[in-house]
Amino acid sequence: MLNQSYVTEFILLGLSENSKVEKILFVVFLLIYVATVGGNMIIIVTIICSPTLLGSPMYFFLIFLSLLDACTSSSVTPKMIVDFFYERKTISFECCMTQLFAFHFFAGMEVIVLSAMAYDRYVAICKPLHYTSIMTRTLCSFLVILSCAGGFLHSIIQIIFTLQLPFCGPNVIDHYLCDLFPLLKLACTDTHIFIMFVFANSGSICLIIFSILLISYGVILFSLRAHSSEGRHKALSTCASHITVVLLFFVSCLLIYARPTAFSSEKNALIFATIITPLLNPMVYTFRNKEMKNAMRKMRKRWIVVPGDY
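The structure corresponding to this sequence follows.
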């Protein structure tokens, strides 16, 4: 059925209608966005400037995870920050679809990258003698390309189905961004089938992959019993960072999409998924990772100019 949409723009209600509260939120989210992009860029630069880290598959994937976190936040946060200055927050139909596509594209990629990182840890801990022969640069590059293809397929399917919806009446979205469930509420048609599609396409995928990741980490932790105390401590430290990031990402996604209907705290869950989680990820990998901290310390010493050197 051809799209019979008559709505040319949507009105976003944002996070608050109180001007004083919005000024406070502007400062808070601006600082969060700067810290998010800056923190993730620091991780990327640190790994690229450290040959030891760059040659490791784990840090190879971490480069793309940090890039995806920065892109995910950038697809949502700047628009929200700018809207704090406007009483009437609008977004055109085309920009709404673009934001919807970008958010789900980067999120879909991140699901596969996190899965690749979990597989990397599984091979490193459970098959250490075959690690270099399995986790080759070719395989790592293939997994990154696969994440791009998977993210694009996931997102384009969402867009195609959304464009089939007729938007002919109300255009006020009680949200700070364009997402599937808020848009479904505005469609001038029965959306029960579309809601089940969202649950099947986003929710079930997150639930299945999250379950697989939990099982894989369970196998990893079980296999650590055979390692030495020092090796077990190092592996646990690395796995703890991955498990923390996986929980931060998937729990919020499951709360939003792994339900047949929307729920009242969807806006708060999306704030956590799109704004807070990309900020916490660089903190997890820098504060809990000794190799990252050492590499950042060396990079800082190399970049700081000592007056006596000239």
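The first strand starts at residue 9 and ends at 12.
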